[in-house]
Amino acid sequence: VNEDRPEAGGAKPPPEVTPGWPRRAARAAAAAAWEDLSDTTRRWLFHGKGTAREAWSRRPPRVTIAARIFLVAATVVGAVSLLVQAGLPSRLPSDLDWRAAATLLERDARPGDVAVISPAWAERARTELPVRLPVSALERYAGEPLLGVRRAWLVGLSSAPRGRTRIARDIAARASADGGSLQLGGLTVTRYDLAVPARALAYLPDQLPSAQVQLGSGRCGPGGSAAPLLCPGPGQLRVAREVREVAGAPHTCLTAPPGSPESGPMTLTFPEVPMGLALRGGAGVTGRIPSATRAPIRVAVQVDGAEVAAVELPPGAPVWVPFETGTGAVSGEPHTVTVVLSSADRDGRTVCFEGWTVP
Amino acid sequence: VNLPFLPPDAARRAALGWAALVLLALVLAGPHSRVGEAEGRLHEAGRRHGAWWTGLAAKPLDSLSTVAATFGPEAGAAPLPLAASGVGQVLLGDRAPGFELLAARLGALLFAAVLAYVLSRFGGDLAGLTGALLTPALFFLVPAAFGTSLAAGTATPAAALWVGVLLAHHRGLRSRDRRERIRRAAVAGLLFGAAVATRRDAWALLPVLLLHYLAVRSRGGIRALQGEEELQPRHPANRSAWRSLLAGLPASIPAMLLLGPLVLAALTPWTWIDPVGRLLTAAKAALAAPPFVHLGTVVAGGPAPWHAPLLAALLLPPATLAFLYVAGILHAARRLVLGWRGEAGATFSEELLLLLGALLPVLLAALGVTPTEAGIGPVLPALAVLALLGARAIATAARAGWPSRASKVALAVSLVALYPALRASVLTFPHGASAWSEWVGGAPGAASIGLPRLASGAGAALLAELGERTAAGQRVWWPSLPASTLEKLRREGRLRSDLRIAASPEEADVAVIEHDDARRDLEFQVWTAFGAARPVAGIRLDEVPLASVYARPGAWR
Q: Which of B246, B256, B245 shows the shortest CA–CA distance to B206?
């Protein structure tokens, strides 16, 4: 027995405390249980090791194990596949969800609103949502002008497989505020107020009835209801305001064939166009794709006869080529805007041109 | 069941049963199936070809003078499927009003039945009765494969003939009877000729079988040089190695070399006028296919991106079948290694043949040799061989895993593995061609990542609604179907008889548009003409629109 002597002048050692009987009883019980448990575990371990060793020595050949794993895996894949199939409808909006979204938008949508659907393929919205609310189904919105749109209602199928797209991010990046999301079953409806709504002073496709259109020196005239303007020349050379596809997206644009060296350029002259700080727009080839020709198409925009912008539409797969030019020097009063389309080889191509003046 | 008209061999009975079942299923499903643009064009051209072939016997000289006009537009492309569709139309369609579509498709349906038979026989050769029963199921339960087999086209005949050549060659190699080997070789040669008269990528069979032969010979030589195999006398002492190599050539290769071009020329009257100049053109020709969008890229005219057929082969079959295909490939690869080592139970030659047969069509499609089209068509021959490998993998695993209960285990696993595929086939019908697998999230997942929607022909499902909701005498614009196909549907009673066909959206009261991302312009033209972008009816697969009907105000009840 070692006895610690307290140093001279040091503090008195703490008195030895004997634990109470409940604690001592608990300690004794725990020690006995542990000993018993250890014995049992030891026995189990001993037996287990023996059984495992015996089983290992009697294990089936590797081929059999591989075959069994494959058969079990095939069964598991089958079961999981069935679960995925059966679970798909619950991840998609039901008829009731669409009706709820339609009711909500019927109540809350205002002029200047647009329904943006995400993913872009969910075009059932065109059938289900209120007629008065335009529906937009584009893959991206980062560079889209969204002319005349003040608020965007994002109608998303967020639970659909791979349903989370970049569309929501694009819209959110252009918004000053969002009105919160509302979950309607398989649909999520979110309202975004655009920070800088785009507005046009004059939208050139809408001004086609007052425009003067010429192919070379020949004037294009009304050709009936189907084609507002028909130009002289071989084939049906029509100029119209249409919704057409360029590079996968719809554009409300002026469609016209480019002029060729034989016919002279196609010229569309818009008199009295109210001018603002900028003239924006874009052009692309629509219709038959891809064109076999190698000649590009030149689209030039003139204000009072002076060229202010020009783009070149390459042959091959169609692309939408935007343009923008400042018109601050001529803003505040109407001017004549002329669009000239020309190419070394027309090859039956049609240009889709969109342009507007910005206040 | 021992019936006098049934063969005694169980595997052969299974094959006949499968052929009958597939034919019956396709005939019954036909009236509700899709009718697409490519098939419509094939029917139109086929009718021209069929009239020529049926008139050949009656007026041979007159027929010969019209060869250029009849066959010129196709320039020798796919003469066999065109003739099969055309002869059916001329011989049966005109005599059985109301069954014109069936008559135009009869040749294709027979090819599908032949494919089922060949698959079952090949499966029986490889894996016994289990293989014979299972192999056609692994192929036809792919919704896209069943959907493709319903329509007249080149893919199903190409798959049937591809597997047919492999089977004939395989049996020829295994046979020890010289007469049987010659018979098999003749069959392989004829089928090869028919295959190249169906699709141009079938030419690859010839170099592939040659490569297979050389690989098997090389393997024997290498093993002998390594001293791992007894050096067997390869040729008599006085014969050169080259002569020996030629003498060992399987009979099917020279038969294919000889009969292939002959059959192609015989089935392609366009080449009769100028065989030297036109045979090569005909061998390279392909029918034009509609454009499509793959991962955001428009594929029109030129070859598709290399990954387009690969993704179709991986992601169009239901997940369990794709898993079995991959397992089948791994199993064959393992057996190839065992075969190389000369271990018992595996044959290097057989495994190499199967692997080449399964992987080559995918490679050819990725390289742009196979005619470009959306969906499963370009890789359908690969799927047929993969079905063989998958079925053999199940049968072999059941035997190895639980030898005493192999058949019951195989049955149980097959039921669990095939049920999701069967369910998908039934639930997506008639839009199985658009049914992407669970791996990618079905049709919605595929549409989200830009895989093609494969909606061609989906508008046919709107015919009943069109008949109920349109007023009498209205004009319908259906830009994806030729007028002759619409007339056929009208005579079959699927398109109401009083509806007229409009030539443009401006002249139409109602328009049926299939949602093809490569040609949205057609839909936007309807928006302009009708002044509205709101469909009045539509067909969707798991919320993904496949086809829509637009109507002028008041034209839809």
A: B256
Q: What are the pLDDT digits (tens) for A196-254?
A: 999 999 999 999 989 999 998 888 888 655 557 888 877 778 899 999 999 889 999 99
Tens of pLDDT, residue by residue over A300-321, are 999 999 999 999 998 877 889 9
Concatenating the DSSP letter of every residue in A150-217 gives -EEEEEE-TTSTT---SHHHHHHHTEEEEEEEEEETTEEEEEEEESS-B--SEEGGGGGGG-EEEETT
Report d(CA B553, CA B497) in Å as an integer: 22
Instruction: Give the Cα separation of B164 and B160 in Å (integer).
Output: 6
Contacts of A163 in chain B (CB under 8 A): 444, 448
| C-beta separation of B521 from A286 below 8 A | yes
Contact B515, B545 (CB under 8 A): yes
- Indicate the SS3 state at residue B323: helix
Residue B373's nearest CA partner among B203, B199, B161 is: B199
Rounded CA-CA distance B187/B419 in Å is 36
CB B418 within 8 A of CB B361: no
Interface test with A, best of B516, B520, B521 (most A CBs within 10 A): B521
Please report, as a single letter, which amino acid is at residue B467. Answer: G
B438 to A286: CB separation less than 8 angstroms, yes or no? no
* C-alpha to C-alpha distance for B488 and B97, rounded to whole angstroms: 10
Q: How far apart are the first and last CA of chain A?
A: 101
Alpha helices (H) along B342-379? 348-367
Residue-wise pLDDT tens digits, A109-125: 999 999 999 999 999 99
pTM exceeds 0.90 = no
What integer is the mean pLDDT of B143-150? 96
Q: Which amino acid is at A357?
A: T
Contact between chains at A71 and B398 (C-beta distance less than 8 A) = yes
Whether the ω angle into residue A205 lies within 30 degrees of 0, i.e. cis, is no
Amino acid at B388: L
The single residue listed with the structure tokens 């996968």 is A248
Cα of A78 to nearest chain B Cα, Å: 5
State the nearest Cα–Cα gap between B292 and chain A, in angstroms: 11
- Does A93 sit within 8 Å of B424, measured CB to CB? no
Chain A residues near residue B442 by CB distance under 8 angstroms: 85, 88, 161
Chain A residues with CB inside 8 Å of B393's CB? Answer: 70
CB contact under 8 A, B542 and A317: no
In this complex, the residue of B416, B438, B534 whose CB is nearest that of residue A127 is B534
Report the candidate in A355, A283, A353, A354 with the shortest Cα–Cα distance to residue A319: A283
Handedness of CA A210, A216, A221, A225 (dihedral sign): negative
Q: Are A217 and A266 in contact (CB under 8 A)?
A: no
pLDDT in tens, B15-72: 999 999 999 999 999 999 999 999 999 999 999 999 999 999 888 888 889 999 999 9
Q: Do A71 and B413 touch (CB under 8 A)?
A: yes
Calculate how close chain A gets to B4, using CA atoms only, in Å: 38
- Number of A to B CB contacts under 8 A, please give it: 162
Distance of CA B523 to the CA centre of its chain: 30
Q: Which residue has the tokens 């010969």?
A: B64
Average pLDDT for residues B439-453, to the nearest whole number?
94
The residue of chain B with its CA nearest to that of A241 is B528
Flag whether pLDDT at A1 surpasses 50. no
Q: Quick one: which of A201, A205, A153 has its CA closest to A181?
A: A153
Nearest CB to B400: which of A67, A75, A163? A67
Partnered with residue A190 across adjacent β-strands are A154, A181
Determine the Cα–Cα distance for residues B316 and B382; give it in Å rounded to an integer.
13
Contact B224, B231 (CB under 8 A): yes
